[in-house]
Amino acid sequence: METQIYYEAWQMDCCGTPFSVGDDVQWSCIKSMQDDSLIGQYEFIYEAHGDADYIVFGKVKHIDAIYYEYHNENNVFTPISYTRKSIEKCEEFIADGYLIQLTDVQITSEKTEFK
User: 33 has which bridge partners?
Assistant: First the structure.
């Protein structure tokens, strides 16, 4: 089973742990409730600050760094387009967000211990 996860840059910049293609990961996530009109579909959003409903286990198959172009209207910045760049390692302060493809995925409820 495979899945796509959107990892917001501020989550990585705040307290994320760098990861690379080929790494096994275990992430707290929330279910994505909508398609992102700019970058497309993803099933989960990484969430490290207490609102997670699921634990997603998997192997990192692919990482796209997302760089947004913003429109400024009265000091309100809205993303209007983006550039995607395939990267091998995700670290702090390198992009606006990350779209990660995981393989060998297993999902469990945040409230259930995975075995």
Answer: none
What secondary structure letter does DSSP report for 110? T
pTM: 0.85
What would the DSSP string read from start to end of 4-62?
EEEEEHHHHHHH---EETT-EEEEEEEE--S-BTTTB--SEEE--SS---EEEEEEEEE
Do 113 and 45 meet the contact criterion of CB atoms below 8 Å apart? Answer: no
Residues 25, 10, 76, CA angle at the centre, nearest 5°? 145
- What is the per-residue burial (b if ≥16 Cβ within 10 Å, else e) of 9-38? bebbeeebeebebeeebebbbeeeeeebee
What is the DSSP annotation of 73-94? ETTEEEEEEEEEEEESEE-TTS
Q: How far apart are CA 101 and CA 42, in angstroms?
A: 9
For residue range 25-67, what is the model confidence (pLDDT) as tens digits? 999 999 987 666 667 788 999 998 878 899 999 999 999 999 9
